[in-house]
Amino acid sequence: MSAWAGKAPGKTLDVYFIDVEGGQATLFVSPSGQSMLVDTGWSGFNNRDADHIVRAAQQAGVKQIDYLVITHYHADHVGGVPQLLAKIPVRNFIDHGQGVEGSEAAKALVAAYEQARGSSAHILAKPGDGIPIHGIDVKIVAADGEGLAQPLAGAGAPNPLCAATQKRADDISENARSVGMIVRFGKFRIIDLGDLTWNKEYDLVCPNNKLGKVDFYVATHHGTSSPGDGGSSGGPEIVHALEPKVALIDNGAKKGGSADAWQTIHTSPGLRDIWQLHYAMAGGKDNNAPETNIANLGDDPQADQGNWIKLSARSNGEFSVTNGRTGETKNYSSERNTTAKR
Which letter does DSSP use for residue 113 in this model? Predict the structure, then answer.
C-alpha cells in the first residue's frame, strides 16, 4: 500500500502545536502510533519547554520520539534538545547538516546539539527525500538552502502571483537553511517550512508552484513578514498559492504574529480560520484571531499555562482543531472553496 494512503481507516493523524513561547515544537503522531517532533523550543526556563513537550507526548500516548527534526540551529528551535533527551528517548535525528553562523554563541548551540545527539541514528535532510513514518507520507521540500528540483505529484502549475512579487536581499542566516516539509495523510496535506525566508519560499513556488495546495498551513517563521522583525517570510506568492483552509501561527505574545503576516494569511483565498498559540500583543484586535482560536491570552511567560492547539486529520480530508485552553473543537470539511476570507 502506498504511504500516501491512510493505513488505518477511522484513525487520525494528530498534531500538537506546543507552546514554547515563540519558538517551535510540533508533535506529529501517525495513525500507526509512530511520532515525529519538529524542533524542541528553548533551553533553560526550568525545563519549561521540555516539560510542555513531554506533557503533550503523554496526552498522545507517545513514550518515545521516533524522529526528531531540527529545522535549523537557532535557540528557539534546537536549544531544548539536551533537556528533552533527559526526559524522553529519541530514536532518530534529522537536520540539514553543518551550521552556517559563525558567532561563538551559534557555535556553542550547534555543539550542544551534536553532543546530545551523540552516536544516535542521524539522517541528513535533502529536498525530495522522505521520512519513513508508517501511515503518513512526509516529503522534505527544503533543506540547507536548497529546494525541490521538481514539483511534487500534482503540482507545478504556473503561479500568476509571482509577477507582483519581488525578491528581497538574500538571507545568510540559519533561517534560510531551514528544513521544510509537507505531510500527507490520504487527502489531507499540511505544510511546515520552519523559518524559511522570503527568497527560498519564492523559489519553491515561482515561476511554477512546485508545492501545490494544502489544507493546513503552519505559518513560516512564526508569522513574520516584515524585514524589520528579524527576517522576512510568508509572502502572498506562496501563502495564497497554497490556498490553505486553516492556518496556525506558532507565535509568542511578543514574538512573531506580525500584522502584515497575519493579513497576508487572513486574505488568502478560501481561508476559513486562523489559530494562534498566543495573542500577539502588537497586533491589536484587527490582526489577531478571535479568542476562541487562541491558546494563550496573557503576555507573561512566567504565568503562562503552556496551552497547546491540537489538529486531528482523517484520511478523507476532514479535520478538526481543538483549543487546549478551552477544550473546544471546530470541525472542517474536505471541501475547498475559492472565496477569500476578509
Answer: H
